[in-house]
């Protein structure tokens, strides 16, 4: 129990280390986005009738004015606004993709556009017990002050665009985003369109009904919309709130200027990139910001948000004088499994003295300004099952044949293996001589991927047997093979240089699969399957023989399942699929 408690405590500490200002702003933004969706859907009811809008707003306010929810909502709103102003101060370079400064500008403009509406409705209810609902607000927007109708339309579009950009930046590196993006785009267009149409249709209804004196007496009384004196008070509050908000933005801008002056007076430092390139920058800039300022290519997939590790650098020389990593930087570095103090994130490291380093990711592959359009291609961590298969005796085969004959046989072997992998739902990935790496789980869950890999091993054995029969007249002995299968978290993405990029997987699971394949020689079997894959596929201990083996590079022995004849896996997988169905 003590070990379990320590494990949970370590996980909690690791999770807390990953929380920074961006993560808090993200959570607050998601809360506000939930409110925005609720409000938009309520507006969309105007396409039915104003009465439907009234019914919808009853349930909308019932939830969002529930005290615990209201506390969370207003706290999130204030934090999100404050962190937006902090982001304006903190950001030193704006030469990222155009969407990022656009998102910041839209976010900062929202309070300016919505302040009068909030004060009129929320504060009017709190101070004077006004009952401004859809009839009163639609009348004000479309009849009393038509300019406010344009203002509320603008704020709807601005808030939705700001939220959509933020969601894109957050989700673009998630594994489901590639297939979900078209549906999310459709929702991002449909929801505000329906909301604006509902707002317009509701306005038309109110314009027609407001011509009636009875309607005006019922809906525009002092109890519902307030007296002129109360309106003057609310207008004054709005003016002061806007001045206060503009003052905060002005202070942020002034603070940026003061910081720039202080840093320049504090002295300049030299950054050496290890390839002869050096730049002079003020103290206080991060290494990534220095690269942007001087147009030095620097890999950065997440845009300097400390959500990836592609901007990593290795510091040359003494690291003792470097600033300590922030909690967020330490969290990211721990995720990539490095405890080397010379490895740092360029977006987080702000050196205070001359620094020499070199980049760990090739800048020409992913530039500092090239954000992810296809996140799965630029680096993504996910669970995959790796199958490594190798042809036995190819060296001896080449000794007795012409080179073209040898290539022909090897290609027929790789074709037989690839066909088996593809037919079972996998993807042939790397071809290394007469061996091949196949990946399973790019579009499926872990359990399905594990069963697909086991089925592929059986299909490989069947295809190779048919190939041996076809080449029987040309082979002194049948083609033999070895298969290693292991699953785990890997990094998938494009690896290479310029025009020589390949999509592949990197990680311990791939290395272990290759080593298991190599061990089939000494264990005289056709396949070795790790306990991880068998457990994920729901293979029991009695289904396949188990054995503990020593894996090069691992301190502890590893439990594997020995498969003497890979074709026997077919019946096993069929039974597993039947159970799963």
Keywords:
581 residues, alpha+beta, Ubiquitin-like (UB roll), Alpha-Beta Plaits, 3 domains, 8-stranded mixed beta sheet, 5-stranded mixed beta sheet, 20 helices, globular
Write the layout of secondary structure elements.
Blueprint: H1 2-17, H2 21-44, H3 50-64, H4 67-90, H5 99-128, H6 134-144, H7 147-171, H8 177-209, H9 213-219, H10 222-225, H11 228-265, E1 268-272, E2 278-282, H12 287-293, E3 312-315, H13 327-335, E4 343-345, E5 355-359, H14 375-378, E6 380-392, H15 394-399, H16 403-423, E7 427-432, E8 435-440, H17 446-470, E9 480-497, E10 500-506, H18 508-519, E11 527-530, H19 531-536, E12 546-549, E13 558-563, H20 569-580
Parallel strand pairs: 1-5, 9-11
Antiparallel strand pairs: 1-2, 3-4, 3-5, 6-8, 6-9, 7-8, 9-10, 11-13, 12-13
Helix pairs in contact: 1-13, 2-3, 2-4, 2-7, 2-8, 4-5, 4-11, 5-7, 5-11, 6-7, 6-8, 7-8, 16-17, 17-20
Describe this structure in words.
It is a single chain. This protein has 20 helices and 13 strands. The relative contact order is 0.07. β12 and β13 form a beta hairpin. Helix content is 57%, strand content 15%. The strands form 2 sheets. Strands 6, 7, 8, 9, 10, 11, 12 and 13 form an 8-stranded mixed beta sheet that branches. The protein has a 5-stranded mixed beta sheet with strand order 2-1-5-3-4. The longest helix is centred in the middle third of the chain and has 38 residues, at 228-265. The chain folds into 3 domains: 22-258, no CATH class; 268-359, Ubiquitin-like (UB roll) (Roll), CATH 3.10.20.30; 379-580, Nucleotide cyclase, GGDEF domain (Alpha-Beta Plaits). The two termini are 36 Å apart. It has helices at residues 2-17, 21-44, 50-64, 67-90, 99-128, 134-144, 147-171, 177-209, 213-219, 222-225, 228-265, 287-293, 327-335, 375-378, 394-399, 403-423, 446-470, 508-519, 531-536, 569-580; strands at residues 268-272, 278-282, 312-315, 343-345, 355-359, 380-392, 427-432, 435-440, 480-497, 500-506, 527-530, 546-549, 558-563. The chain has 581 residues and is an alpha+beta fold.
């Amino acid at each position: 129990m003590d070990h379990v408690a320590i494990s949970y405590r370590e996980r909690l500490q690791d999770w807390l280390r990953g929380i920074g200002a961006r993560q808090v702003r993200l959570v607050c933004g998601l809360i506000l986005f939930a409110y925005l969706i609720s409000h938009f859907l309520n507006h969309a009811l105007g396409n039915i009738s104003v009465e439907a809008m009234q019914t919808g707003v009853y349930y909308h306010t019932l939830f969002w004015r529930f005290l615990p929810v209201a506390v969370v909502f207003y706290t999130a709103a204030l934090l999100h606004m404050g962190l937006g102003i902090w982001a304006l101060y903190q950001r030193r370079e704006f030469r990222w993709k155009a969407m990022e400064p656009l998102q910041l500008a839209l976010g900062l403009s929202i309070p300016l556009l919505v302040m009068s509406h909030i004060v009129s409705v929320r504060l009017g209810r709190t101070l004077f017990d006004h009952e401004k609902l859809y009839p009163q607000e639609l009348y004000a927007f479309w009849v009393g002050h038509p300019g406010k109708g344009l203002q509320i339309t603008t704020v709807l579009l601005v808030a939705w665009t700001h939220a959509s950009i933020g969601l894109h930046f957050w989700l673009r590196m998630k594994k489901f985003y590639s297939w979900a993006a078209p549906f999310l785009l459709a929702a991002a267009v449909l929801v505000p369109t329906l909301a604006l149409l509902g707002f317009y249709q509701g306005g038309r209804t109110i314009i027609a009904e407001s011509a009636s004196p009875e309607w005006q007496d019922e809906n525009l009384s002092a109890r519902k919309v307030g007296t002129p004196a109360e309106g003057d008070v609310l207008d004054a509050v709005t003016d002061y709130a806007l001045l206060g908000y503009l003052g905060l933005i002005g202070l942020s801008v002034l603070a940026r200027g003061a910081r720039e002056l202080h840093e320049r007076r504090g002295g300049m430092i030299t950054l050496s990139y290890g390839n002869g390139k050096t730049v002079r920058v003020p103290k206080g800039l991060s290494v990534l910001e220095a690269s942007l300022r001087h147009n030095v290519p620097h890999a950065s997939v997440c845009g300097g948000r400390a959500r990836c590790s592609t901007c990593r650098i290795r510091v040359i020389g003494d690291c003792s004088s470097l600033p300590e990593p922030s909690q967020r930087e330490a969290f990211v570095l721990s995720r990539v499994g490095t405890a080397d103090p010379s490895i740092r994130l360029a977006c987080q490291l702000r050196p205070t003295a001359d620094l020499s380093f070199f980049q760990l990711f090739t800048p020409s592959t992913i530039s500092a300004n090239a954000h992810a359009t296809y996140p799965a291609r630029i680096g993504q961590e996910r669970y995959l099952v790796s199958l490594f298969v190798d042809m036995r005796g190819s060296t001896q085969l080449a000794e007795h044949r012409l080179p073209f004959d040898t290539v022909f046989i090897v290609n027929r072997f790789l074709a037989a293996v690839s066909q088996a992998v593809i037919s079972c739902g996998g993807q042939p990935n790397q071809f290394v001589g007469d061996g091949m790496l196949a990946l399973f789980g790019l579009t499926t869950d872990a359990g399905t991927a594990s069963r697909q890999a086991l089925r592929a091993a059986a299909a490989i054995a069947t295809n190779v047997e048919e190939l041996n029969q076809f080449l029987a007249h040309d082979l002194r002995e049948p083609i033999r093979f070895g298969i290693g299968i292991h699953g785990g978290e890997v990094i998938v993405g494009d690896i290479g240089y310029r025009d020589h990029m390949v999509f592949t997987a990197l990680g311990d699971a791939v290395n272990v699969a290759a080593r298991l394949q190599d061990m089939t020689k000494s264990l005289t079997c056709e396949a070795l399957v790790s306990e991880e894959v068998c457990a994920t596929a729901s293979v029991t201990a009695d289904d396949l023989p188990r054995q503990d083996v020593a894996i090069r590079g691992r301190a502890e022995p590893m439990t594997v399942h020995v498969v003497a004849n890979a074709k026997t896996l077919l019946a096993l997988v069929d039974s597993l699929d039947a159970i799963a169905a």
